[in-house]
Amino acid sequence: MTKHDSLIFDLDGTLWDSTKACAEGWTQGVRQVDPGSKAFSPEDLASIMGLTFDKAVEKLMPHSKEDERQKLGELCYQKEMEQIQKMGAALYEGVVEGIETLSEAYPLFIVSNCLEDYLTLFYQMSGLERFFTDAECFGRTGQPKGHNIQAVMKRNQLKNPAYIGDTSGDQRAALFAGATYYHVNYGFGTPSQECERFASFSKLTRYFVDLSK
Q1: 124-176 pLDDT, tens digit each
Q2: Is the distance from CB of 150 to CB of 175 less than 8 angstroms?
Q3: If you ran DSSP here, which 8-state letter would residue 50 be given?
Q4: 157 shares its domain with 197
Q5: Which of 57, 122, 180, 211 could cysteine-pair with 73, CB 3.0–4.6 Å?
Q6: Is the distance from CB of 93 to CB of 16 less than 8 angstroms?
């Protein structure tokens, strides 16, 4: 087993699940414009987790005109943020204890395709910010996840990081950046290539703690 000098985490589907609150927010947003619009389900929102904001809006509103879609997407995102603050989001079992434990053995990072205020909200609601050394997101750079992983690696002089995510897109981004990819099975997707996989965050924690010794 290869030792790593750092752990970089994806956010949605890896550390927490905000799909219920997001679905409620997007439903409120579209119904503010058109009261007859269908409701979005948590499964609808799960299908766009990991996509950049523009791609997510395009997938959820494929029949809207581009200019209308952008404005409506921004409204829905505003409602999404309000609902996450109101309803909360579910940290996966073992994440709070696991992150604290892992921070004693590795510097920890987050790289996500989310917008910047979403990352800030995660920190505020989870109380985990103090355990992370650095983070990057699409909302701040406008760059694909692979480039953002590379940026974190360069900024922090990381030589052999692990990237932990839950989709094939996460795996592609990690491989592009030169990080070793590890997959959590409880998230929103599946890997496209063979890799180490974990059924729970607790098992992930034990694996990397043992690897650090």
Answers
A1: 999 999 999 999 999 999 999 999 999 999 999 999 999 999 999 999 999 99
A2: no
A3: T
A4: yes
A5: 57
A6: no
